[in-house]
Amino acid sequence: MNEEKSLGVGARIAKTLSGVEPNELTATLASTLFVFILMATYYILRPVRDAMASDWTDSEVSFLWNINFFVSAGIVAVYGFAVSRIRLKSIVPAVYGFFAVTFVGFYFGVASIADRELVDKTFYLWVSVFALFHVSVFWTFMADTFNKGQAKRLFGIIGAGASAGALFGPAIPTLFAGTLGTDNLMLIASTGLLLVIPLVFYLYFLKAAELGNEDLAADTSRAVMGGSWWHGFKAFAANPYLLGIGAFILLYVFIGSFVYFEQKNLLADFTREERTQILGGIDWIVNLLTFGLAFFVTGRIVTRLGMPVGLALMPVLICVGLLVLAFAPILTVLLALQVVRRGGNYGLTRPAREMLYTHVGKEDRFKTKPVIDIVVYRGGDAVSGSLFAILTDKVGLGLAAVALVGSAIAAAWAWVGVRLGRAFDTKKEDAGASTTSR
Predict the structure, then answer these.
(1) From the centroid of its chain, how far is CA 260?
(2) What architecture is domain 21-428?
């Protein structure tokens, strides 16, 4: 009785602080650990990748981003084919196992291939593919595990796990890049990807056993989804709701690209090891500041103020920050803006954006979502990278002028967020009709 009473008190405290119901606690913790490991793995690799970029010109990086768009589109097409042919229960672990093997391959490739620059640029491209693919597949899995009401309360908390992982991951290259060397970090990342596979199968079990989503579990366990590999591309072009999500992501990418290139240029005078440590340190600070936002704030903003505020708040803040940067184009302001942009994305904008997919069917979650998260994102990289290279290398604009251009883009981003949030709130009334395949 005392143990049961104690459990009840603990469950009530968890519900009061975070909105987690007792039957959701185990699945929420497992999901949070899942994304913690994923983001820690990515943030081990991210400083290694970004340190390479400072050795190349803006035009070279822009060219790589253009290549990345086509590589990403091809990978998404292959993924769509796999989803149509392979059991859904096997898809998610297969993705992470595949990426783990590829990073082991890069580790041996560094030692055996003479042209190090070719290996570096290939690695840069592949980590950029992984950067979007691993998190897109994760949130697809989450949208297929939790129902709509659970997603609104829990995705912000799960997103806090991403912030915690992004807080822990950079500490490894920051502290050990000088002693381990950047190549050995690839093996550490591979190990992390293998660790999440048991969690995938555990969450499949919890979906029916504790979350009460038996219908979702039965649907996921069937043999294959079927359909065409190009469904995701076709559905994205035909569905205004999905097009709105794509526009929201595209404008976010434009803002991120502008800040990324300026950061790259400011680090050009440092050595690669110093850049890796500096970037790792910045990542650590950003995620330390954003953990509390994701855990305590996101769910309350969405449930109390609505999705329009949840989606538009960060774009408005970024718009104001870019205007400040235009009139005070100094490093301190740029770094502060980077903290707000990245912290707000992981802490608020990303979890709110992922809630949007609870209003689409299973085939769109598994096939159309990667088209938006990866192909549209990398298409935005290609266009925005080329635009930045033109504005700086060709036209000769400085940081202040580029910041003014960015503030206009952020204003458009906020407008799209409001419209998309209103569409989501409207769909709440006819949720059953909008998710027939769920």
Answers:
(1) 16
(2) Up-down Bundle (1.20)
